[in-house]
Structure formats: structure tokens, C-alpha cells
Amino acid sequence: MRRRADPPGARAADDLQQPTFIRRLERRDVPRLVRLLATSQPWLRLGYGTADWRRLLGGPLADRDAWVIAEVGRARGIAIVRRTFLAGGYLELLAIEEAARGSGLGARLLEHCENAVLACAPNFFVCVSDFNDGARRFYEGHGYVQVGRLDDLLIPGSAELLLRKTTGPRRDAPSTAGSAPRMSAPRGRGASSRRSTARLR
């Protein structure tokens, strides 16, 4: 059955009744998030500016999901997930308002993205700039392990570190010699937590 449209202002009223929650990116979030990203590290050092963020957030996000973590109706952070990357998904962006960093909002938003990806695929990837020590500690603390290094990818003299969180190989080992490998079933969040010991560019 088709969902009836909310009356004007109903969504904002619902937001105000929920102190902290995660929802899809909406057009009303874009100006605030552009300001957040255009004035934050590490993107300033990487050379991203207002025009870059307007182009990204204001256009279609093909094959990507964008999530916002909000408090009393105001966006405090954003995550963008590319649905297909190697044998899993890729966290293209995770940003939290500077005043809210260290409050647990980033961990909540990351967990939300992990749940969505790892329920369907065994791997979740993210890149971190080599100079971004805080982000590296954050992801390592959530079970991510460095699996690659991309020198001079974004700016000269700096590398992007490819990190991975996994629930295991995509395929199970064949039971007998010569038999075709079998695709392993997607593992849920519980398996991820058990088998993992985890950025933000």
C-alpha cells in the first residue's frame, strides 16, 4: 500500500521528539553539512572546499547511500557509503561536527553503516589519510586493519591508507578437490563483532 505523504512540518516535529537519531540525507541538511565539511580537517588540508561539497551533496548520489545523524532535528554528522567496492562496501565519507567529536556520535553512525553493509557482504573498507592520527585510532578501535597504502593519491607527499573490517572470506573453501567453490552466506552483525578485534579522510 502506498504510504501517505506527511503533512508539512510533520517530519520536523517528529525530529524534535527524538534527541539523537539516524536518517537519510535530506535537502534541508545540505547547507549545514556543506559548512561543516568546508571548515573541517582533514578536508581543508586535502584541498576540498565549499564548491566540492555542494557538488557532492547537492547532486545525485548514484549507487551510494547517505545517512545523517541528527540531534533535535539538526544534522551533526554525515556518512556516505558506496554500495559496491571489491567484495563489500566502501565508506566514502564520515564526518562529525567538530563540537560533537568524542561524544559517540561517530561510533553510532559508523555502526549503522556497518550493519547495513556487513549484513549483505563480508567486507567494509575505508581510507584514512596517513597524517590523520585521530581517525586512524578511531577505526583501529572499531576493528579495522590496514590492507593497503596509496601514495600521493590526493595530495603530494601524503598517502591514503586503505583499511578493512571483515567477517571472513567471500567464498568457503571447496570441500573436495576439483569441486566448485561455494559462495558463503552473508554474516550478520554478531559474526562481525566476534571475528573482528574497526575514516575519515
At a glance:
This protein is 29% helix and 28% strand. It contains seven helices and nine strands.
Total number of strands = 9
- State the distance separating the first and last CA atoms: 42 Å
Large-scale geometry: globular
Strand order of the largest sheet: 1-2-3-4-5-7-6
Give the percentage of residues in beta strands: 25-35%
Mean residue pLDDT: 82
Determine Rg (CA atoms, Å). 19 Å
Give the CATH H-level superfamily: Gcn5-related N-acetyltransferase (GNAT)
What name is given to the CATH topology? Aminopeptidase
Supply the helix-strand structural class. Answer: alpha+beta
Q: What ranges have pLDDT less than 50 throughout 5 or more consecutive residues? A: 1-17, 188-201
Helical stretch tally: 7
Architecture (CATH level 2) name: 3-Layer(aba) Sandwich
Biggest β-sheet: count, sense, barrel? 7 strands, mixed
Whole-number count of domains = 1
* Helix-strand pattern: HEHHHEEEHEHEEEEH
Helix content: 25-40%
